[in-house]
Inverse folding.
């Protein structure tokens, strides 16, 4: 029963991770928002890392135990499986950072990108050198490497997800729409909880043989929750990607330029075309209801229309 349960705990996250990737791919293709693409690549790199380094090393260790291989061979296999997975985990977490900043309508600073990947290369090189010394040169201490690996992973997870959550809390206030603020804060809370649960199980994994399998289960299966949450958000508040939608967005910009409409008035036009009321536009742009009415009046005067319907039709028909 114990072995059957372990196999189930490996198969379920493999399937769950594949489903999450499928859903994220559909969202990336279906909605014209950059953060959907970044989230898709985050899940892809994370899934490959999980399958290769976590599931793969677990299966390999199980096979070695059945073959009654020497302990040094088992240790060497685990070390190099994790070693080759470091670039994947680094790429996946970078794409998550990029996804969050894209949702907050910001870009990843070039200096941060350079520093992040330089540090990743250094960690990769250090781990590789120590792994070679330990396995081929028969030097070093395997238990030291396992402990270092465990605490490095723990520290990386805690620092990354706490930092992302703080960024979300502080910068989401600048988002124009309340529903966007709620979404990214709930999304960040889901991944903060993910960090707490996976790190707890990871640190306790040496206490029981089933805990490493539970860690893999959580590490790969958890993402079904936020991806479903994202799909509901996009379906409710965004239009599917079509050639018409892309053309309309470009047409609004050309329309604004033609009638000498200001940047703030263009933002108001975008929200009018999305069907928001005057009060909702005021809440989204953090301006008063009277200011919204003044902007709309100026837009109507500049374009010669009398109401929202005429404005929208004029934008669509304007060449």
């Amino acid at each position: 029963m114990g072995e059957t349960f372990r196999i189930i705990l490996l198969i379920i996250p493999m399937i769950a991770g594949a489903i999450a990737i499928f859903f994220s791919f559909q969202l990336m293709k279906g909605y014209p928002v950059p953060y959907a693409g970044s989230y898709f690549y985050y899940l892809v790199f994370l899934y490959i890392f999980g399958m290769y380094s976590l599931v793969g090393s677990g299966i390999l260790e199980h096979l070695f135990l059945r073959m009654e291989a020497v302990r040094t061979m088992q240790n060497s296999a685990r070390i190099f499986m994790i070693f080759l997975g470091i670039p994947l985990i680094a790429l996946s977490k970078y794409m998550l950072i990029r996804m969050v900043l894209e949702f907050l309508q910001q870009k990843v600073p070039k200096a941060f990108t350079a520093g992040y990947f330089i540090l990743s290369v250094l960690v990769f090189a250090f781990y590789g050198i120590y792994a070679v010394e330990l396995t081929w040169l028969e030097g070093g201490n395997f238990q030291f490497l396992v402990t270092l690996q465990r605490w490095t992973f723990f520290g990386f997870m805690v620092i990354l997800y706490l930092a992302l959550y703080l960024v979300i809390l502080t910068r989401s206030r600048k988002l124009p729409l309340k529903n966007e603020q709620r979404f990214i804060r709930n999304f960040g809370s889901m991944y903060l909880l993910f960090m707490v649960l996976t790190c707890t199980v990871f640190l306790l994994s040496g206490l029981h043989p089933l805990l490493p399998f539970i860690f893999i289960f959580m590490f790969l299966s958890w993402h079904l929750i936020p991806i479903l949450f994202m799909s509901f958000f996009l379906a409710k508040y965004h239009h599917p990607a079509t050639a018409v939608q892309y053309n309309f967005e470009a047409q609004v910009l050309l329309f604004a330029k033609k009638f000498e409409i200001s940047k703030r008035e263009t933002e108001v036009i975008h929200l009018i075309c999305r069907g928001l009321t005057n009060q909702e536009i005021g809440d989204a742009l953090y301006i008063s209801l009277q200011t919204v009415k003044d902007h709309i009046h100026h837009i109507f005067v500049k374009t010669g229309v009398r109401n929202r319907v005429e404005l929208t039709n004029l934008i669509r028909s304007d060449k």
The radius of gyration is 25 Å. The mean pLDDT is 83.
